[in-house]
Automatic annotation (TrEMBL):
It comes from Trichoplax adhaerens. SUPFAM superfamilies: Ypt/Rab-GAP domain of gyp1p. PANTHER family: TRANSLOCON-ASSOCIATED PROTEIN SUBUNIT GAMMA, TRANSLOCON-ASSOCIATED PROTEIN TRAP , GAMMA SUBUNIT. InterPro entries: Rab-GAP-TBC_dom, Rab-GAP_TBC_sf. GO terms for molecular function: GTPase activator activity. The lineage of its organism: Eukaryota, Metazoa, Placozoa, Uniplacotomia, Trichoplacea. This is TBC1 domain family member 30. Residues 265-295 are annotated as: Disordered.
Length: 330
């Protein structure tokens, strides 16, 4: 570890540091946690930047991904500013607990978990899914588009990429992270299923996609304030969803790993059928096995978290800027 820490925190910059540093600094003010995004606390911002740059030096294949700033800020806060300990936990969490390629350039593992989540949500909450499918189809028809992403995508993707640090109070996030560290990455899918199940009755009242997004924008803020999700009830719901390890989640992950179009690094890769002025879509490697094929929105990784804005209260992180995200998709 001494050698790794010396390399990661080396004050001498290398040729990759300038580009990474600019990207990291650009995101620091969007951490949403006042202790690390406040311009009046430059020492904390500098510590967060060093941890993020240290991870990027350690894992050059991933480098820096938007959302890391939220994860690193919470870890750094837990360890009371100890940068080496924060980096050590970040490396363990991202490289050894979460699925491989979760933050790789095409986000393949994230695409897989999104597909797994949708399958299980359809099985566990059929009425909710039927209602959301109806709203999704009506939105596509109204927009005159061939493809409208699943309504849950904007929220679930955000939750996965920041390990729920964008949607829940700090104490609840840390309880979930304890579960992830103890039980493994299937907790991500379990937690998303639990959250949508809890929110199901509320969002079933939405009569169209716009109303759904507006409702979820309001709900997201209340979730951050701890007014909707009971922490203990959420953890109990996570653990009541089958044994550990969850055989169905792993089975579905295997099913989709080589049978899904991942998020691409460029919208230019979107096929012409869906490529009208930045719209989203997906493509098949073959026409076989249609049942197992899943369409995923082709959101460039650099943009995948671009719809967040800081939530101003102490101890909270982000809430989603739904309008910005929807405008990007259009």
């Amino acid at each position: 570890w001494g050698h790794i820490a010396k390399f990661a925190f080396n004050e001498k910059s290398n040729r990759d540091d300038d580009k990474l540093g600019l990207q990291i600094v650009k995101d620091l003010h969007r951490t949403g946690y006042s202790k690390f995004c406040d311009k009046n606390r430059p020492e904390n911002r500098a510590a967060l930047k060093r941890v993020l740059l240290g991870y990027a030096r350690w894992n050059k294949a991933v480098g820096y991904c938007q959302g890391f700033n939220v994860i690193a800020a919470l870890i750094l806060d837990v360890f009371e500013g100890n940068e080496e300990q924060a980096l050590k936990v970040m490396i363990y969490l991202i490289d050894y607990v979460l699925p491989k390629n979760y933050f790789a350039n095409n986000l393949r593992a994230l695409s897989v978990d999104m597909a797994v989540f949708r399958d299980l949500l359809r099985e566990e909450e059929p009425d909710l899914c039927q209602h959301l499918d109806k709203l999704q189809a009506e939105a596509a028809e109204e927009a005159g588009s061939d493809y409208e992403p699943p309504l849950t995508n904007v929220f679930t993707m955000q939750w996965f990429l920041t390990i729920f640090a964008t949607c829940l109070p700090r104490d609840t996030i840390l309880r979930i992270w304890d579960c992830v560290l103890l039980e493994g990455s299937t907790v991500l899918v379990r937690t998303s299923l639990a959250l949508w199940s809890i929110l199901g009755e509320r969002i079933s009242a939405a009569e169209n996609a716009h109303e759904f997004y507006s409702m979820m924008g309001y709900i997201s803020q209340k979730m951050l304030e701890g007014r909707i999700i009971d922490r203990d009830a959420l953890i109990q719901k996570i653990y009541s969803n089958g044994s550990f390890p969850h055989p169905i989640i792993e089975e579905l992950r295997d099913k989709y790993t080589y049978n899904i179009t991942p998020f691409t690094s460029s919208t230019s890769e979107v096929p012409s059928k869906y490529s009208t002025s930045g719209s989203t879509g997906s493509t098949r490697d073959s026409d076989d096995d249609d049942e197992n094929y899943v369409e995923c929105p082709q959101t460039p990784p650099a943009k995948c978290l671009g719809g967040f804005f800081p939530y101003p209260e102490e101890g909270n992180f982000y809430c989603a800027s739904i309008t910005d995200y929807l405008e990007y998709l259009k």
